[in-house]
Amino acid sequence: MPIKAYDLSGRTAFVTGAAGGIGRASAVLLAEAGATVHCADLDVQGLHETATLIKEAGGTAHTHHVDVTDRARLTQAVAACEGGLHVMAAIAGIMHSSPVLETRDEDLDRVWRVNFKGVLYACQEAARHMIADGTRGSIVTMASGAVDTGGPGLLCYGVTKAAVVQLTKTLATEVGRHGIRVNAVAPGWTRTPMTDRHDSEAQARTESFMARLSPLGRVGEPDDIAHAVLHLASDASSFTTGQIIRPNGGVAMPW
């Protein structure tokens, strides 16, 4: 069992992007801390695998086949959380890479719908339920180390993650009076299916380069980021809101 401040027993968490990567690691860890976890994603097979991991470890999981850009479907899934909603982890996101001069409207629109509007919808639904139920809950969004520095080809991704940061800070100021906390996690380069976009040789070169940028000499793993999500979801961060937590291996150290 986790120490008391991290104990989520009796609470309900909703995790988008739960079929793999950081979303899966977060769903599993929240369940390990005692939460009943509602896992949402487009990947049905991945959802099943995540739920199986949770149940085999003795936890409770429910799955929802959800496109986060479909507000009505997301609303329906969140409404299925019996006993109230205590934690929303809006993690679903996609990657797109193209130089600024070659970025098309359809590229930006697609990434914007998932990475920003999908997070916005999840935050709105969570906040509405928490306010109505009087739940002093926690909303955790997923930003990126890309908000701290420019990177070639990362216009769409970086812009949408920067928008998530602004959403997080703005919502925190609006719902704090209800006892609801809103924070973001901005991971550094983390080994996930989303970052595994190259052949094995190119992937190894990329990971080696990113590891050299970190004072710790390594890249991130999904569990590294999931522990930041758990911290923000739990009472251990009860005096933390509107903040950006950066588990990035020290690659960026903003004031």
TrEMBL record:
A family per Pfam: adh_short_C2
GO molecular-function terms, A-Z: oxidoreductase activity
Entries under InterPro entries matching the protein: NAD(P)-bd_dom_sf, Sc_DH/Rdtase_CS, SDR_fam
Superkingdom of this protein's organism: Bacteria
Annotated PROSITE patterns: ADH_SHORT
Gene3D superfamilies per record: NAD(P)-binding Rossmann-like Domain
EC number: 1.-.-.-
EC category name: oxidoreductase
Keywords: Oxidoreductase
Keyword tRNA processing applies: no
Protein family (similarity comment): Belongs to the short-chain dehydrogenases/reductases (SDR) family.
Name of the protein in its database record: SDR family oxidoreductase
Top-level taxonomy: Bacteria, Bacillati, Actinomycetota, Actinomycetes, Kitasatosporales
